[in-house]
């Protein structure tokens, strides 16, 4: 734990003179897209300009990587996966996130960020949190959001929501049950590692109830 805390201590967050950096995390079907739309409206109503971005993706280069990963038909080595996500993230920080944060009235909301790498590649793929954190120690990757909402749902809820949507399964959505159980556990470990930043929310309740919990936290944060 102390090695992990030592690594975490090497990360920074945007200063009070910069914009607000938020991310939202959770397994498939946890409601990230739904809540991002809510958070966007919440800040626009208060006069902020809001930028929403997704990972992997968000830049031309990142979108190509997204396609390469999520449409891959053969298994990638976990370290290849980790490096591909980190490459997409680096480019997103460089092209979009850091320039946007220079404006104090800007809110950047990310659909997935470093915690996805910790949960998916670090825990579920077995690389370990230490390996993932070490990949992020250099600038511009060593910046963390001010708040991360972790939408916590169980595997059954995730499966039900995916069934309702009925889309074709991507690279990760074809994984076995054990992978997903490990993923849920990984996210919960991440939340207990970053207690000040990550707000864990029970997202098995209705979307409106989840939004209310997020709203209460944001009001307190501002
Ligand atoms: N990945 C990503 C890594 O492995 N490592 C990394 O470092 C990164 C960055 C990306 C994949 O890449 C992996 C993780 C992912 O597998 P993606 O398509 O961007 O894939 O992400 P998904 O999680 O697959 O996106 P989803 O669209 O499936 O999930 P969302 O956005 O969480 O869910 P949402 O809002 O679309 O909702 C799903 C359905 O549930 C309903 C909605 O109406 C919708 O139909 N819903 C609710 N129903 C009931 N109650 C609620 N509270 C509800 N909230 C939403």
Summarize the structure in words.
The chain is an alpha/beta fold and 222 residues long. It has one domain: P-loop containing nucleotide triphosphate hydrolases (Rossmann fold, 3-Layer(aba) Sandwich). The protein is 52% helix and 13% strand. It has nine helices and five strands; from the N terminus they run αβαβααβααβααβα. The model has no long low-confidence stretch (mean pLDDT 96). The structure holds P1-(5'-adenosyl)P5-(5'-thymidyl)pentaphosphate. P1-(5'-adenosyl)P5-(5'-thymidyl)pentaphosphate binds next to helix 2, helix 5, helix 7 and helix 9.
Summarize the structure.
The protein is α/β, with parallel strands linked by helices and 222 residues long. It has one domain: 3-Layer(aba) Sandwich (Rossmann fold).
């Amino acid at each position: 734990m102390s090695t992990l805390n030592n690594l975490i201590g090497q990360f920074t967050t945007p200063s009070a003179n910069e914009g607000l950096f938020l991310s939202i995390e959770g397994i498939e079907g946890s409601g990230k897209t739904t809540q991002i739309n809510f958070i966007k409206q919440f800040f626009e109503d208060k006069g902020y300009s809001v930028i929403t971005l997704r990972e992997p993706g968000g830049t031309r280069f990142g979108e190509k990587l997204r396609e390469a990963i999520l449409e891959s038909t053969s298994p990638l080595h976990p370290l290849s996966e980790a490096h591909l996500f980190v490459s997409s993230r680096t480019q997103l920080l460089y092209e979009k996130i850091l320039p946007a944060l220079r404006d104090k009235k800007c809110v950047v909301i990310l659909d997935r960020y470093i915690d996805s790498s910790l949960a998916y590649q670090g825990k579920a793929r077995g690389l370990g949190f230490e390996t993932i954190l070490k990949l992020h120690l250099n600038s511009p990757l060593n910046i963390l959001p001010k708040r991360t909402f972790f939408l916590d749902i169980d595997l059954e809820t995730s499966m039900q929501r995916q069934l309702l949507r009925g889309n074709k399964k991507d690279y990760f959505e074809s994984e076995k049950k054990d992978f997903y159980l490990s993923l849920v556990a990984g996210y919960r470990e991440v939340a207990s590692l970053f207690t000040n930043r990550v707000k864990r929310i029970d997202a098995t309740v209705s979307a409106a109830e989840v939004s209310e919990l997020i709203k209460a936290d944001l009001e307190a944060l501002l």
